[in-house]
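Researcher: Structure for this, please.
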Amino acid sequence: MSAPAYAALGRVGGLTTVARHGPDAVAARARAGLWRKFENAVDPDRVLAPDERRRMAALEQRRYYAQLALRSARARRAATPPGKAART
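Model: Predicted structure, token format:
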């Protein structure tokens, strides 16, 4: 079987899973893992109170996505050929 055929089968399987269980249920484990990453970054030893850990993890999440946006903007700027205006 060719690579595009495998990709098509995978796409069908993924869409079937989402259709049966819903997108929220499918992504819940990934979201929980990412949130755990933010909590571990701010309080690896679990010494903070849960409310404070949540507050700091939310700030860490904002920092992470702001940094991701900055890197994306730099990459797009670097990929723009000289003399061609970047999209706004």
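Researcher: Any notable elements?
Model: The mean pLDDT is 94. The chain is about 80% helix and 0% strand.
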